[in-house]
Amino acid sequence: MTHDIDPGGPPLRTGLAFAEGSDSFATAARAAMTAVRALGDELPRIVFVHHAPCHDSAAVLRGARSVAPGALVLGCSTEGPFCGELRRDGITVTALASPHLRGAVGLARNAASGWSAALDEALAAPALAALLDASPEASRRRVRKGSRRFAIVYAPGECEELASPLFEVVEALRFRTLGRVPVFAAAVGDGPTGSPGSVFAGDEVACGGLLVLIIETELEFGISLAHGFRASGNAMRVDAAEGRELLLVDGCAASHVLGASSSLRGLSSLDHITLSSGKAFGIPERPGEFAISVASHPTTTGGVRMSRPVQPGSELVGMELVRDAASGGAAEAAGKALLRAGSSPAGLVMVHYCALRASILGEEGARAELARIRELAGQAPLAGILSRGTGVRA
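Above: the chain sequence. Below: its structure as tokens.
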């Protein structure tokens, strides 16, 4: 996500800070104080807080709110917060101040086990009513003001027991907003086999919860997604699938076929196929273009749990990750977002960088990709999280 700065006096001011320490409240307050001070005499409107799993979300939230009591404070836990670069510990705070920025948030619990009800609960938050108003009168008002809306979503990430509902949440949110609200989403998690992570806003914290932030703004912004994989195998026919579970491929058990195509043998329920092999699977959308579906864990029925639903009769193509930081997925996504935001210098670049990608590329490769984003972004602060999956509907 990017916001433009007006050379005649920036309508968006951004403060970004990072702090480490064993006391979650004090560390969050310290990071928030540094970020808010960077705004000068402007008061923060929206404050994003991202923290490593070693910190307590409730204490982090209280610490940040103690510094910015009048702002909308929200965020999540993550195995890797960004402050210019990838961090593995500590807390990052991104404070935004602008008269052209209005936001409201809805929060729901138990999203991992019931995403549809959780989305209903989040969107029913009274604070969201005005920003979700789709009436002709509200639409005319936005046109007169030159304002647009977009959503930032934090949904639970995948763990061994549960699949992430991120894909379904993003698609449903776009449907419910009639396709008029672009969505920038991340799956929140504290590690590949651990907690699905926490989301928080206001004075509420929800482990495994769903957070939906709607922003209305007169500022320019750009949102983009790139997966950075290229086709590396022949097409395979999907013979049977039930939702996320891929059952039969080319007449054989999916775990056998996908395991063989990934050079894995003797798969157990603990094996994450894409993480172990570095390969994902593409669903053809247009000539030469694929939607990526990550193959996670084998199931007891010989199937494979996928990151998005797969339709019987469709095709899957083996995909390998492009490892060139100059032309890979991170550079492609950042370039598209900056282009969509217009020609003015960016005021903020927010990144949801897939943790699976970081695991396959390694720490050095991930840092090289993030350095490339910084290069493209110029002087703009780089914030965001290492996510357990990403989703965009621009």
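DSSP finds ten helices and 24 strands in the chain.
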